[in-house]
Design brief:
By secondary structure, the chain is α/β, with parallel strands linked by helices. It has 16 helices and 20 strands. The chain has a five-stranded parallel β-sheet with strand order 10-2-1-14-20, with helices on one face. The protein has a four-stranded antiparallel β-sheet with strand order 17-18-15-19, sandwiched between helices. A hairpin with a 6-residue loop joins strand 11 and strand 12. Helix 1 packs parallel to helix 14 and helix 7 crosses helix 8. The relative contact order is 0.19.
Amino acid sequence: MSPRVVVLGAGIAGLVAAWELALRGLRPLVLEAAPIAGGRTSTWRDDQGRTVDTGLHVVADHYLNLQQVLARLGVADRLHWVEKHTYLRAGRAPMAWYFSPYQPPFHLLRPAREMPLAPRTRLRLGRVALLLASMDQADLAALDGETYKQWHDRMGLGRDFMLELAEAAGDAATFLPVDRAAARAVISWLKYLMRHRRAGDVGLFRGTMAEAFIDPLVREITALGGEVRLSSAVTRLILDDAAQAPRVSHVEIAPCRAAGPVHSASGEPPVADGRESIPCDHLISALSVQALQHLLAASGERLLDRAGLGPMMGLTTTPALSLIVTFDRPITPVPEGAPLCTGVAMRDFIDMKLLGRGGLVPGAGSTYQFVITRSDRRIHDPDATIVADIVADLVSVWPGARGAEVVSYALERVGAAMFAAVPGAHALRPAVTTGAANFYIAGDFTRHELNASMEGAAFSGRRAADALLRALGRPGLDFPELPDTTMVPLLRAARRRLARSLT
């Protein structure tokens, strides 16, 4: 008889875990509180009947697990890869941003040449870059106790263009400003850019996330005998510690009243009356960090203690804001690639036409999707304030938008978009296995070298499936490895001498 496997959460982590298990003959039951699958990559129709989603989702070159899943699903052709981008800041001419076609670290020559830096700062940057390239994961973990801004100042990198880029990198990696984000999180993101000559390439999904990825994943799971049950909120985990080792024996669920994605900062889903108890032989939680924290608290101290998940209760979250705006006329010309902005209310934006998507109002002008910075400060601002700030800042960095009027907009407020990668948070990230023998954790907040991202989610889902399969005595999964440059071992050998000269 096939073991009863329950997966909590139908975001990328949960769906990938369930899919990997279904491919190997298991029949997982996926429970999702929302009426739609996708988690933080959901697509749905709002109360005006418009197709909206939770943000602009991009695939980086080093997202190897995610790319492998897309390829095996047969949807990799949904990605539109962009090599060249535009760096925008008010008061400056647009800067083309792309890497040289050389092996690392020489792929960085072009952006290094284009940066408006003083000779002394440029020299300092080169020496720090060599130090970063030589770092391994233990070195990065040692930086988790300070903010990136503290590290930046300690390295003497100044407060000009280098700090601007660091702010953009910090926001991309953590959704936090550099005076709050841990140095480990920001520097690990920067290190990926240094390891591969195509590290600046960005893959954008053609169509909605549901069309391009989530729906094909759900169809595959169900076709293989699994089930994805929506509008089913988990309210409690029931521990059986009469067994030789503590185990989760049942999952208690209730109908969920949410009309869209469930992203509240509290982690508590809106439930209706009625409870159902579902037995499980193995359980994977792929809930968001705040949802898992709420569930563990509701399940009692005994489970929290036996599972050894007390430290993760100290993790916090950060919100996000995503805005889609349809204008009354086409905005031309269009910035090349996925524009990167600093000093304004948005980090990046994209013309939705590039993704094969229409606007909020048929027949109107351009439709842009924006990723908004400093969401922690703006999350409670009125819609009108946020939209006015974004449009004004768009005009300031891209004058071609001057005079374009807003016809319609859709603003999505995500109360908890990811765990907050503040100093000390990395040590609180939970492992894939727990003190309960049949209880596994997936999610981009779990303990691994990746930041919160779609790759972190896909990797964690695959890793949870791998751990479960091995516990059943079955072969595990193979994981792709990011190639390192041949110069890195030499750089690591020289790291101590470089570090002494910089401190």
